Structure of Leucyl-tRNA synthetase:
Amino acid sequence: MDAAMNALLEIFSWVGVGLGLSVLLVALIARLADGTWLPARAVVEDGPNGRFVRWFDADGAIGQAPLTAEQDGKLAGKDMADIYYRHGWTDRMRLDPRSPAVRPLTLLGTGLVAFGLACAIASWVLLALSR
């Protein structure tokens, strides 16, 4: 029974750490691919096709982007908003500084690595107790 449990813990430790590091690598690639987003203060306006925001970027250009339904809900009743725009683009913005995909990948990868390390420690403790 101890040998089977030790083998199972060993498998979980290698899979957890290996898969976790792989997911963390994907999160790093996603973070790098996301690019640079800079903060700006934007004006919220009504247009013929819905609400949109306008802002000045760091180079002095005027940016403009339509609001999604979710963004419009968050900015309901506001005339000004703090946004983040994609550097080098005049039509890409979001309300959060980080990509919504990077955080779950980072949490999943960290959780898998922690699970793998916990299994490795449990395997070592079980091995020490069986001697």
